[in-house]
Amino acid sequence: MRAIIIEDEKPAAEKLQKAILKADTGIDVVATLSSVKSAIEWLEENDMPNLLFMDIELSDGLSFKIFDAVNITSPVIFCTAFDEYWQEAFEHNSIDYLLKPVRQEKLDAALKKYDKLKQHFSADVRQFLQSRQQQLADYKKRFLVKRGTDYISVKTDDIAYFYATHKLVCMIDQKNQKFILDQSLSEIEKQLDPSMFYRVNRKYLVHLNAIRKIRTFPKSKLQLELEPEINEDIIISQDNVTAFKEWMSS
Questions:
Q1: Of 241, 1, 240, 244, nearest to 118 (Cα)?
Q2: Which one, 27, 39, 184, 219, has least CB within 10 Å?
Q3: What is the pLDDT of residues 170-185, one digit of tens each?
Q4: Residues 100, 106, 112, 117: what is their CA dihedral angle, to the nearest 10 degrees?
Q5: Among residues 117, 109, 123, 202, which one has the least CA distance to residue 162?
Q6: Residue-averaged pLDDT of the chain
Q7: 154 near 178, Cβ under 8 Å?
């Protein structure tokens, strides 16, 4: 299998290549590219590799610019130090999003995912990517909310959590700003990507990145600590613990 690495830090690229070969000696890293410009030039002049390992913030811009110049049909495993690009990454052929420093077990799991997808789609993962991109396109990307006499647009990846109170639903963003919505939690839940938002109980619908800490709680329950902090116990029932753990580790 042919793969390329797009990474502007030489030590990180060398470490990633060693980890790739440790995970699968059958992977041939045919090129290591350090910029948007060099990646575009290489992809225009060579056959498309089977798999790309791609950093996001490169020396001459975000790697997403490569997709604007080249029709990339191969799946991508993004390896980045930043977690704020996850949604855009999954709109650009991503099958996994690994945070630096990339742990060997996470890389192994990502490559196993690639193998499973390849087998499922008869060595062609493009069907999966197209399906995933369409699925993401169907999820709500922003909410139009009212602040005073004005309306503002809030991106879904800027939302920390939603909660129901006194027959109202409130939305809290990452800056701890509160907005009141005119939809039920169930209606909102259907509009969001289930890989990023989870209905932890009847009252709370939380974003993955808003979960700061998970504690054990009496009677086999779990207690969540959210960011921004809220002065209330967020409890996951015993019946919901298994599903929640599977969601957190997926």
A1: 1
A2: 219
A3: 999 999 999 999 999 9
A4: -60
A5: 202
A6: 89
A7: no
Range list for CATH 2.40.50.1020 in the chain? 142-249
Which pair of tokens denotes residue 187?
A: 């209606």
Question: Do 66 and 43 form a contact (C-beta atoms < 8 A)?
Answer: yes
Given a cut of 90, is residue 160 above it in pLDDT?
Answer: yes
CA distance 245 to 241: 6
Helix and strand numbers, DSSP H then E, in the chain:
8, 17
Angle between helices 104-120 and 10-23 (to 10 degrees): 60
Determine whether domain 142-249 maps to CATH 3.40.50.300. no
Residue 136 CB coordination number (10 Å):
16
CA dihedral 200, 142, 58, 60 (to 10 degrees): -170
| Predicted local distance difference test score (pLDDT) of residue 174 | 94
CATH architecture for segment(s) 2-137: 3-Layer(aba) Sandwich (3.40)
Q: Which residue has the tokens 């995933």?
A: 132
> In the numeric block, which tokens belong to residue 95?
């099958």
How far is the C-alpha of 173 from the C-alpha of 38, rounded, in Å?
Answer: 38
Summarize pLDDT for 33-84 with one digit per residue, the tens: 999 999 999 999 998 999 999 999 999 999 999 998 988 888 999 999 988 8
Mean pLDDT across the stretch 240-244?
91
